Every structure is written in structure tokens, then in C-alpha cells.
Amino acid sequence: MVIDKSWTSLGKHEKAFYTGLKKFVDDCKPLVDSAGNIRCPCKSCRLVLWVSIKHLLDHISKYGFDPSYKTWIHHGELDLPPPPPVIDNTRQPQMSDMTTCLNDLSYIPLNNEQNEPTQGDIGETSNNLTQAKRNEFEELYASANEELYPGCDYVTRLDFMAKFTYFKVKGKLTDSIFNEMLEFFQNVFPTAKGYKLPPSYYAIKKTFKMIGLGYESIHACVNDCFLFRGDVNKDVHFCPVCNTSRWKDSNTPGKKVPKKVLRYFPIIPRLQRLYKSSHTAKEMTWHATGKCTEPGKMQHPVDGRAWKDFDTKYPDFAAEPRNVRLGLAADGFNPFGNLSQSYSMWPVILTTYNLPPWLCMKESSFMLTLLIPGPKSPGKDIDVYLRPLIDDLKDLWAKPGVETIDVATGLKFNMRAMVLWTINDFPARSSLSGWSGQGYKKLCPT
After folding, report:
1. 351 closest CA partner among 369, 337, 335
2. From the first residue on, what is the mean pLDDT of each consecutive set of 10 residues in the chain (446 residues)?
3. Are 296 and 397 members of one domain?
4. Where is the Transposase-associated domain (predicted)?
């Protein structure tokens, strides 16, 4: 016997709901216990409480039917085992997550006259695509569709590298241990038998760097007063401020080891990627339509006074809802988890306030931009380490902006960005103090 359950998903004011409910109660009358009670499947009782049969209709009418109650085993339906799954030998493998990512990166807008991806179309800032870059991207596509071993149709070689690296980070494995594991897997699953495991962590990082997940290593003065970057300063061996050597041992033959290294994760390609991904492109304009309509209530920074004051002062920026509003946060922590160890690491993180409130403060939406090494807090000299980030922010603020593809509309536009405010734990002497609430005045000159 087929039981009609369609009425449970209808509105409580529809006639078909009451017709189905009345029949359900009538069918339950022979199933009551000796006291005339039966389990109630309403959203309030959820089969935990028992009610009399005459109150069953009132409960479900008032609270509705529990949608998680699929098989009515307490109300006359037999609990039969599910039928065996039908195996479809013609099933095609689903598109992997990494292939979807590459499709987003290589998206070509309809108004692209060249009919081929430019370097700007794959997340870079330049429009001159070299043959080497094109070959790298083709290799990524091949890896994203390459079987990990013959007959494997559920994970590709690129998917394996992404997932395995995730386990490394989650388990806090060192590079040496990770390489030993890969070496062990290479011996157990040799390439001679068709297995295509990555040879080392270096090879995995090199692959991911082609996707745009790399970072810049910038040598810094050990006294926090200078960055050895740019065409003029990249080959300087002594700090021009304090005359301290850049190297741990300047007499070492071959490749020298720097005393301090700053890691910078470029923000321009990452902001461009937010508009190149079908998962986030539409959400990036939420702030333009998601303002709170209740007076005096704030549910997102767009409802705050700083946001509104900025829109009044810079109407040309506010006229394009795809322009990006950012928040900046920084704080120090001990990466070794040992209070007796005198070392601190200072991450600088950007928050994208274009996104709705349930996404903009989600951990996966945070953008790590700088990792400032210890052994102590940079103090007021944090300004020195922020220079790579500030340079990119100035490029993003200057007109006309950075050419970006919006997959939501299929068109290109010029993206600009600004820092609305900072949430910081900077020392009081830092020139960044006072940004909070009015940060755009520092980064957005007229």
C-alpha cells in the first residue's frame, strides 16, 4: 500500500493539508495504546511525547508535521529495507572540485574578441600571456583530469595533491615527515604500475603556485627597519638604515640564508578570483541590496556610519557595487604553543565586507596577506612590513582600477578597493593606530 505523504509539505491553511491530516488521524485510531495515546509526529513533540488520539489533529495543525519523519513506523508503515542501489555502468565521473576551480580561472567573457584566455583572465594582473604560462595552464587541466591510477574515476591526481596537502596542514606535519610519507607511498604504489603520486612536497607547491596559491618571500632587516624588495633594493646586502647584514653568514659560498623573511600573499589576484568564481561572484554585491531596513539597527558594516560617510565623500567609488570594501586585522601569537618560547608570529588578515554577514566573518572568507616573523612583536615598525600590502591597495584605489572578469554578468569591469577600517592589536606607538573606524582616510587620498 502506497501512503500519501504529500500533504505534510503543504501549508497549514490549505484544504489538502487538512484532508490528508484527517485521513492520517483516522488511520492511527487502531494503533493507540491501552490508554488511548499515540506518539505525536508534530514539530514540537517529534515522536518523543505521546498524546491522546483526539489531540493528535490539534498538535499537527498547530505545529506542523515533522519533516524529518520519513518512514511512519510508529503510525502503521512497515519499516522495509531500502532497495539495492542500481549500478549504472554508463555513469560518467563527476567534475572534480579542482577542475571547477580551473574552469573559473580560465573563464572567457563573451565580449573577448581574441577568443582565447589572457593572463588577466587566469587571475594575473598582466594581459600579455606567454607560451610558457599557457603550457602551464594546459598541464594543470591535464592533471585535473588525470586518473590517480588506472581505473580510478573518483579522484584525480590534482584532487589527491589538494586533499593530501590539506591533511598536512590540519595535522601540522613537517615538510620532512610529509616527504617521507610520499616516499613511502611511492614505494608501495610505484609509478611503474601506473600510479601517479607526486614525488615531493616541493612538486606539490610548484603545482599549486601555477593556480595562484603561492606567496612572495621578501627578505627583511633583522631589526625591522627595511625590506630588501624592488629592483633597487633586492640585491642590497646591508640594511641602509642600521647597516646590519642581510645574511646569517655572509661568507657562506653559494646560496646565502637570510636572517628574516616576510611572506606576502598578493591580494589583487585573490580579489579578482572572488569575481571569477561562480560561488562568490553574486555574493560580492550583496551589500548593495542587503541593507537593514529597520531604523537604528545594524546587521552589517553597510548599515554603519563609517560606510555611509565614505559613500558620501567618494560617490564615484560607491556607484560601482562591485568595488571592494575591506577590513584589516592583525595580532601576534606564539606558533609553537609554548609560553616559555620567546617567539611571535604576526599574521595580517583582510576581511571582505562586500559579502553577506554569514560569509564575511566566516573563517574560509578571511584572506591571509602577510606573515611577519618574530622573535618579538614588530611594534611601531609594523609599517615597514605592511608596505607590499599598501602598494597593492594603492593600485586598487587608483583610477581606473584593475581589470577583472565578473562571471555573474559575463563582462569585464575595473575593480577598485579600499580599507574601510581596521580591527587591530597594534602597539599604541604604531602610525596605524587610529585607523579603526576611519581607516579609509589613511588609504584613500583625494
Report:
1. 369
2. 78 83 89 88 83 87 84 78 53 54 60 43 43 64 78 83 89 92 91 87 84 84 91 89 90 85 92 87 89 80 89 94 92 66 82 91 88 84 92 94 88 92 47 35 37
3. yes
4. 5-77
Write out pLDDT tens, residues 395-439.
Answer: 999 999 999 988 888 889 999 999 986 555 444 333 333 333 333
The grid coordinates of residue 306 equal: 563609517
The total of structural domains in the chain comes to 4
Contact (Cβ atoms closer than 8 angstroms) between residue 27 and residue 21: no
Using alpha carbons, list the distances in angstroms from residue 114 to 108, 111, 117, 309.
Answer: 10, 9, 8, 42
Assess whether 313 and 337 both reside in one domain: yes
How far is residue 90 from each of residues 87, 93, 97, measured CA to CA in Å? 9, 10, 22
Q: Which domain holds residue 108?
A: 97-211
Please indicate, yes or no, whether residues 282 and 423 belong to a single structural domain of this protein. yes
